[in-house]
Design goal:
The chain is α/β, with parallel strands linked by helices and 255 residues long. The chain contains 8 helices and 10 strands.
């Protein structure tokens, strides 16, 4: 099986000599189809920079990023727009919904931008809304929703075009523990039932425990990897905590 994402020797440097900061230092890893991969690290570790390079929000200073055989640095114009809209979906920490659109309109927005057949778009929205339990907020505006509802609407919007890869940037960062657990159960379900490939960055051990594999990053370098076997989520969580302790961090158990 070929990897859906191949990151090879990716570095990202900010600033000019002699005041340069290296956010990423020759990062190399792969993401396989159907995988749920977490990138863990403290603030400033380079994890969000890595996600932004994959999302083409910024360009790496060196190295290559290849998704389904496409080298991202070669994409421009229409090909780049298609990549951002159809190949990858993006889930933000703060939802990034448009306040002047209803939940349903926010979800359907990518379908109009990327010419999805209207009937197909509505059927896909209905399917996702039922799974994510947001059918009751499709006619509401974001200001009328809870944070958890807003993030589930955002998940539906990110998934409506069947992206090859879902990028999730601290998806539980703006949620309380109950809604955080709910959103992670939904993402885990999409990974299991739709074989959605998910790459998520997080600093939270509880959130990371839903992943199948975790890469730990510090000072722009991957220094450790954990794979979840047949163990319980709680046992995997405990293993995550041991690695987080090496970073000088911690997390409360709210599972």
């Amino acid at each position: 099986m070929e990897p859906i994402l191949n990151i090879e020797n990716v570095s990202k440097t900010f600033g000019n000599v002699p005041n340069q900061t290296k956010a990423l230092d020759k990062i190399t890893f792969q993401v396989m189809p159907g995988e749920f991969l977490g990138i863990m690290g403290s603030s400033g570790s380079g994890k969000s920079t890595l996600l932004n390079c994959i999302a083409t929000v910024m360009k790496p200073t060196s190295g290559s990023i290849v998704i389904e055989g496409k080298k991202l640095h070669t994409l421009n114009g229409k090909a780049l727009a298609e990549y951002r809209g159809q190949t990858v979906g993006y889930l933000f920490q703060n939802f990034e919904l448009l306040d002047n659109l209803t939940g349903g309109e926010n979800i359907l927005l990518p379908t109009s931008l990327h010419n999805m057949i209207q009937k197909e778009g509505y059927l896909r929205m209905k399917q996702l809304a039922e799974y994510l339990e947001i059918t009751d907020v499709l006619d509401k505006f974001p200001t009328q929703m809870s944070g958890g509802q807003c993030q589930r609407v955002a998940v539906a919007r990110a998934m409506i075009l069947h992206p090859k890869l879902l990028l999730a940037d601290e998806p539980t960062g703006a949620l309380d523990s109950k809604n955080a657990k709910n959103i992670m159960e939904k993402l885990s379900g999409l990974n299991r039932d739709e074989e959605a490939t998910i790459l998520m960055v997080t600093h939270d051990s509880n959130t990371a425990s839903f992943c199948k594999r975790i890469l730990f990053i510090q000072d722009g370098v991957i220094f450790h990897e954990l794979r979840r076997g047949d163990e319980s989520q709680q046992d995997f969580y405990q293993r995550i905590l041991k690695v987080v302790a090496q970073l000088g961090g911690g997390s409360c158990n709210v599972l």
